[in-house]
Design a protein that fits this description.
- The chain is mainly α and about 550 residues long.
- Helix content is about 80%, strand content about 0%.
- It has one domain.
- The N and C termini lie far apart (about 50 Å).
């Protein structure tokens, strides 16, 4: 028999103010985001090291293209679970259950969800293994032009499909820990994946030929190990909080039902995203060999500031927004969302200007060695510039979309997503004919900017305002400060290039470090002169965690 929930606690006016006291100032949010940001920075640095190792071992050739497409299939679930519909649906529900009914009831909801995830993703893994050939052929049929590439992609897909289950469970653990105010360990968990890939490249790649396997298979195996480690590193923290997994499934649990209801629109949105990704993959594989890899390397570089800023701020804000929403504190929700968006603007706009300005020296320093050639550098840098155009759009979607789940309006971001995905497909089909693979990066950025803008407009209406006057002023000031930063960076780069010539690693490090340092100094001075308060909050939050 289903155990009934304890009666909902009656909240006084003073009780309803408490969430606003928990996270009431920009510095408080910045501090929470700073915890996530420091851990995410560690993970992203390791992610860059991972990509450097992969670039050196495999370059941007057919094997790397095969791995990227094969991993893309199970990794798509990350969009649904790790940073998408499941987290956005589960965190508010779990936080509400925790806030209003206590830990025991929250653990019961978590056990139900984990059991459901095991059943659903386990079935998906089996189905995917059986249908791997038609699935991969649909995604990357053009790989058949290169002998053996399609078969390799199918084989790698089968190896990596269980990653689906691992990343889903890791995301559930992350959601629980975030709701319990644990940010560092969950944000650090992806670092385990990067460590496993790096170790696998050095330790397993040399062993593969003796086993009759392609060397890239070692990376697929390492990906599985990395997925398991993402879950394992979070489990001790959950146990210390008192969580014990019990293999139970109660479909009548209202919390589980609420998660599923909230996830429904997100799942529809994911299906639409699959269509868009399918079209983009098909278009990319129709380009020259290496296009898939160039786009992937560029996107991961662009995603570094999104992970540091957009995802970190969203991760810190979502549980706090959920607490406000649980007690119908609209003013507190509005204030917190405005703070999160302000920090997103002041961190992501300078990153956009920096990536556009310094794309080629960044790519050259990070990747141009081993089998990664100068041609690969130029092509990856070109894609990076176009992807960087949409950075603020990506980050604002990460911050604003989960808010709709917290206020029980999950259909809104899905409807917006459907329209922008359709727009993205049209733009990409047109631009790829004009600009080749570069058009895919630009088209994706334009579409996500539309997505982010539409969500902000609708969020403004749903919340009765999100301090839009202040946000517009922050946006304009940050554009000016970022422009000054870009001008200083270009000038210093030219001066340093004359003083420190050459293509050696040491010379590149000196040039790029000096250029970035000068640009950041100019940005900070400009932000201080223009009175950009959110920039000070962001610096204070991060500095408070580093000192």
């Amino acid at each position: 028999m289903t155990k009934p929930l304890p009666p909902r606690t009656v909240l006084t006016v003073e009780d309803r103010r408490r969430p606003a006291e928990v996270v009431s100032a920009g510095t408080a949010l910045a501090r929470s985001a700073g915890v996530t940001g420091v851990a995410t920075l560690t993970s992203r640095i390791l992610g860059l090291a991972r990509d450097q190792v992969l670039a050196a071992f495999f370059g941007a050739g057919s094997d790397m293209d095969a791995f990227i497409v094969a991993f893309r299939i199970p990794n798509l679930v990350r969009d649904l679970f790790a940073e998408g519909a499941m987290s956005a649906a589960f965190v508010p529900t779990f936080t509400s259950r925790l806030t209003l009914h206590g830990k025991d009831e929250a653990w019961r909801l978590a056990n139900n969800l984990i059991t459901a995830l095991l059943l659903v993703t386990g079935g998906a893994v089996v189905a995917g293994a059986v249908c791997a050939r038609p699935l991969v052929t649909a995604y990357a049929g053009n790989f058949s032009r290169v002998p053996g590439q399609l078969e390799l992609t199918i084989s790698l897909t089968r190896v990596m499909l269980p990653f689906l289950t691992m990343v889903s469970l890791a995301a559930a653990a992350m959601g629980m820990l975030n709701s319990l105010h644990h940010y560092f360990v969950p944000a650090l968990s992806p670092a385990m994946f990067n460590i496993a890939i790096i170790a696998g490249a050095w330790a397993l790649v040399p062993l593969m030929p003796a086993l009759g396997l392609a060397p890239i298979t070692a990376i697929a195996i390492a990906a599985l190990v990395g997925g398991a480690l993402q879950l394992a590193v979070q489990w001790p923290s959950l146990r210390r909080e008192g969580f014990r997994y019990r293999p139970v499934l109660d479909p009548r649990d209202p919390g589980l039902h609420q998660v599923l209801v909230l996830m429904g629109p997100g799942t529809i949105g994911l299906a639409a995203t699959q269509v868009s990704l399918f079209v983009n993959t098909l278009l990319a594989t129709s380009q020259e060999t290496g296009a898939v890899s160039w786009l992937a390397y560029a996107f991961r570089l662009m995603y570094l500031p999104i992970g540091l800023f957009g995802v970190s701020i969203a991760t810190a804000a979502l549980p706090a927004v959920s607490r406000h929403a649980a007690v119908d504190d609209l003013a507190g929700t509005r204030r917190l969302v405005a703070q999160a968006l302000g920090m997103t603007i002041v961190l992501c706009l300078p990153a956009t200007f920096g990536l556009v300005t310094l794309a080629e020296p960044i790519v050259r320093l990070l990747f141009e060695r081993g089998r990664f050639s100068a041609v690969d550098t130029v092509s990856t840098a070109a894609a990076l510039r176009y992807y960087a155009v949409g950075l603020l759009g990506y980050a604002s979607v990460r911050v604003s979309s989960p808010v709709f789940y917290a206020i029980r309006q999950s259909k809104v971001p899905v409807i917006v997503s459907l329209w922008t995905i359709a727009l993205s497909i049209v733009i990409n089909v047109v631009l790829v004919r004009v600009m080749g693979f570069r058009g895919l990066a630009l088209g994706t950025s334009l579409a996500v900017l539309v997505n982010g803008g539409a969500l902000l407009l609708l969020l403004h209406r749903r919340l009765g305002g999100i301090e839009h006057g202040s946000l517009v002023l922050t946006f304009v000031k940050t554009i000016v400060a970022s422009g000054i930063m870009a001008v200083v960076s270009v000038s210093v780069e030219h001066l340093i290039a004359r003083a420190v010539p050459g293509h050696g690693t040491a010379a590149q490090v000196i040039r790029l470090s000096a250029t970035i340092a000068a640009g950041l100094a100019a940005l900070t001075a400009s932000a201080k002169s223009l009175g950009i308060r959110e920039y000070d909050d962001a610096l204070a939050g991060v500095a408070g965690r580093l000192m």
